[in-house]
Amino acid sequence: MIRVLLVDDQQLVRTGIRLIVDLEPDLEVCGEAADGAEAMSAVARWHPDVVLMDVRMPVLDGLEATRRLSAAGSSAKVLVLTTFDLDGYVYDALRAGASGFLLKDVPRDQLVSAIRVVAGGESLLSPTVTKRLIERFVRLPPPSTGVPPILVGLSDRELEVLRLIALGQSNAEIAHALLIGEATVKTYVSRLFTKLELRDRVQAVVLAYESGLVQPGSARAVDRPT
User: 83-91 contacts: CB < 8 A, separation 24 or more?
Assistant: First the structure.
């Protein structure tokens, strides 16, 4: 059973989402919170698998609450749910440690699917959203002919897997591109997360672009010097 915490300052919104979630046999609402501060306490009390987090709330907003949960090492996955379709909110949410971002007007089936995806350890980040966010918000360091310092401990194959993750490719697509098995890709991804201390693919995407491994608007990775 996937345990879901609802965080929104509007009671009516929480009630509506609860009705949707509780209809699913594998999902349950374990608690509610009306602001980010209450969310911090609620996570510690109920240990949810997924937190549906609003952005604009009194006392403590959703972005700061997400940052604090991430910094505290919480295992709960944060799925930001907001009415504001602004790139800045999306990017800030992902930087804060959220595993996905949805607007509140998404169809019911997309909401429940997103909860399952995030609970399963994947990120809700399509190639289209990746391109839109990265090209507009990430400021890259000066171009370099070598591997960014933060990535020097990675092998050539690990760098290639990270590059393909940053381009929005799934494990199956990476396996096809590199002519290796999907299980092998999963091993590489897990190793990447451990080496770079990443929570999920969202953080991997942000790191790949911010480090300069992948250039916005280009499928080219920075070459390892020979």
Answer: 84/55, 84/56, 87/132, 87/133, 87/136, 87/137, 88/137, 89/55, 89/63, 90/129, 90/133, 91/133, 91/136, 91/137
Q: What is the DSSP letter of 222?
A: P
Would you say residue 85 has pLDDT above 80?
Answer: no
Q: Are 72 and 175 in contact (CB under 8 A)?
A: no
* Token pair in block for residue 222: 């920075």
Q: What is the DSSP letter of 139?
A: -
* Closest C-alpha to 119, from 1, 2, 202: 2
Global pTM value: 0.68
- Taking the C-alpha atoms of residue 141 and residue 97, their distance in angstroms, rounded to an integer, is 22
Read off the pLDDT of each residue in 54-83 and give the average, rounded to a whole number: 90
Q: What CA dihedral angle connects 28, 30, 35 and 41, to 10 degrees?
A: -150
CA distance 170 to 109: 21
Whether 166 and 204 have beta carbons less than 8 Å apart is answered as yes
From residue 4, alpha-carbon distances to 22, 46, 85 in Å are 10, 9, 23
Exposure string of 84-99, with b = 16+ CB inside 10 Å and e = fewer, is: eeeeebbbbbbbbbbb
